[in-house]
């Protein structure tokens, strides 16, 4: 027992020593027991140590601060290493800059550094420009260098440059001499050109004199009688003046002959234009005598009658001009009226898309527009031009024979809308009814290929309801819920699916259209969708020979009837609940 107690004491001592070694700051040597020192229990000491440790951790430095300190020390060591790599000259210059006013504080150092960067950039720019200019000058020097030998030509000793300044001086002197010699060359060329002009003028004068001499010789050769000869007065001037007057007279004669030829050509061209105009197919129905004369007379005789025709056509021209202006005003008014109708029709298309918005509670169709009509509206100038072409085409069709173009108001409006929406036209898409009511749109041109019979009928009913709501809106009854009534002849035979009937009723309720279904089928699944079913019977009066349609019964949904006034109210069961007792496990 003593041995076991000793082992336990040794284990306890080892555990306590290990625990003491884990305590930071604990002495290695155990102090001697002092009788005067108050002794505390071990659990109390452990609790005090735990509280002290928690307090120390609260006031201790955080890990982020230690990490920041480590980064700062790393940056400091890197900066110091970089500073050690710098030379003493750079350090000395840095100390001088820090002692200057620019290094007194942080903002001043930043401003000085920015100015230094700008100066460095400026110097680098200048250096690059200088390098570029040096390369260009070297290229020019290599390009201008002589191919054979060291120089283009041999210069005398006094013209050989000693240095760059002397070369510049010699170059300026040579340039000045070259400019003076170039000016002298230009003056010599101008003098040469003047001499050539004078020589040509002399040759022209000589040829003119030869012509005059030849003309005089021809006149002298003519032998005329004295009676035929006309007495001419001699020229009062000198021979030089006579020659000048004769030359001017010949030049005037040549100019008059050229003008006469041009006038005759213009008259011939105008006569041809007049004849072609009179022979045009546009005027085949014109039976005036003037047109017949223009077509039959020769071209040389047309100028003699031109003034008479002009005087005769002037009043008619004024009348036709007034009529054309009146027709143009009428055409503009028709185009303006048609433009208003076309704009109203386009607004109607936009209203049709807006009014086809479906109510809530239809899945993906909730809030969707059943119709989507897309087109690009032209500007006013383009619309006016296109509508004018439509009016002109209708007018030309009215003049032509055997023309099948309709010219009623609706046809003109439809052609005007089609012209206004050119070249893309109008694109109309419609939602495809299906069992899950997916928001899938199909162009109206593909409805017959994509839709089934019931879907096609449902789409037709929705389109009719949209048009009925649009008509009610155009009549100023957009807030009136009742947009009309639609009688349907046995639609259940084609569209007896429940979702199609629900969709038809939802669209009609949203657009305010009353749907009346007539059918001879007794499909209970389809008829269960309607709140009221009226069964009718054919009756015949054999004596009177008449047939009647009488109401046989009314079928309504199984809802409790409201009590009438004065009727006794009886109790009725509106709901039931069944409770099944679980089987007992005890015998």
From TrEMBL:
List the coiled-coil residues.
171-205, 317-344
What are the protein's UniProt keywords?
A: Coiled coil
- Record keyword Coiled coil present: yes
Top-rank lineage group of the source organism: Bacteria
Q: Where is the composition biased (Basic and acidic residues)?
A: 1-22, 68-96, 135-161
- What ranges does the record give for the region Disordered, renumbered to this chain? 1-40, 68-161, 562-587
Name under which the protein is recorded: Uncharacterized protein
């Amino acid at each position: 027992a003593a041995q076991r107690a000793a082992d336990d004491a040794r284990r306890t001592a080892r555990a306590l020593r290990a625990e003491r070694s884990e305590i930071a700051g604990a002495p290695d040597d155990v102090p001697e027991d002092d009788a005067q020192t108050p002794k505390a229990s071990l659990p109390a000491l452990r609790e005090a140590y735990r509280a002290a440790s928690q307090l120390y951790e609260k006031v201790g430095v955080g890990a982020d601060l230690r990490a920041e300190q480590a980064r700062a020390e790393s940056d400091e060591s890197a900066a110091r290493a970089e500073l050690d790599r710098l030379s003493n000259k750079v350090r000395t210059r840095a100390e001088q800059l820090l002692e200057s006013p620019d290094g007194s504080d942080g903002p001043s150092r930043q401003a000085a550094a920015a100015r230094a960067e700008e100066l460095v950039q400026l110097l680098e720019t200048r250096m690059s420009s200088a390098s570029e200019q040096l390369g260009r000058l070297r290229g020019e020097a290599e390009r201008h260098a002589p191919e054979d030998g060291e120089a283009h030509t041999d210069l005398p000793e006094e013209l050989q440059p000693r240095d760059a300044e002397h070369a510049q001086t010699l170059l300026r002197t040579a340039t000045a001499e070259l400019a003076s010699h170039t000016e002298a060359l230009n003056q010599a060329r101008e003098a040469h050109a003047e001499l050539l002009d004078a020589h040509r003028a002399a040759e022209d004068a000589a040829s003119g004199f030869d012509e005059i001499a030849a003309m005089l010789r021809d006149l002298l050769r003519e032998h005329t009688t004295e009676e035929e000869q006309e007495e001419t007065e001699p020229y009062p001037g000198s021979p030089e003046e006579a020659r000048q007057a004769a030359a001017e007279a010949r030049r005037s004669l040549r100019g008059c002959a050229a003008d006469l030829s041009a006038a005759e050509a213009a008259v011939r061209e105008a006569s041809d234009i007049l004849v072609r105009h009179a022979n045009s197919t546009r005027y085949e129905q014109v039976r005036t005598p003037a047109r017949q004369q223009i077509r039959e007379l020769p071209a040389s005789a047309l100028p003699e009658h031109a003034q008479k025709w002009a005087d005769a056509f002037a009043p008619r021209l004024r009348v036709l001009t007034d009529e054309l202006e009146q027709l143009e005003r009428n055409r503009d008014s028709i185009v303006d009226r048609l433009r208003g109708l076309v704009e109203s029709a386009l607004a109607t298309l936009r209203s049709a898309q807006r009014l086809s918005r479906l109510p809530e509670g239809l899945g993906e169709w909730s809030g969707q527009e059943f119709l989507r009509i897309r087109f690009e509206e032209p500007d006013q100038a383009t619309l006016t031009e296109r509508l004018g072409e439509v009016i002109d085409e209708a007018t030309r069709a009215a003049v032509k024979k055997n023309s099948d173009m309709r010219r009623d108001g609706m046809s003109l409006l439809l052609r005007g809308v089609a012209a206004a929406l050119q070249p893309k036209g109008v694109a109309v898409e419609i939602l495809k009814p299906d069992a899950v009511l997916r928001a899938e749109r199909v162009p109206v041109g593909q409805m017959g290929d994509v839709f089934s019979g019931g879907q096609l009928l449902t789409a037709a009913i929705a389109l009719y309801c949209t048009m009925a709501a649009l008509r009610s809106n155009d009549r100023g009854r957009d807030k009136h819920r009742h947009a009309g009534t639609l009688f349907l002849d046995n639609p259940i035979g084609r569209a007896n699916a429940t979702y199609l009937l629900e969709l038809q009723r939802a669209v009609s309720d949203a657009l305010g259209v009353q749907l009346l279904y007539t059918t001879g089928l007794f499909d209970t699944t389809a008829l269960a969708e309607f709140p009221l079913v009226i069964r009718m019977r054919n009756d015949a009066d054999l004596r009177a020979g008449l047939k009647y349609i009488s109401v046989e019964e009314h079928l309504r949904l199984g809802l409790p009837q409201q009590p009438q006034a004065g009727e006794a109210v009886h109790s009725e069961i509106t709901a039931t609940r069944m409770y099944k007792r679980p089987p007992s496990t005890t015998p």
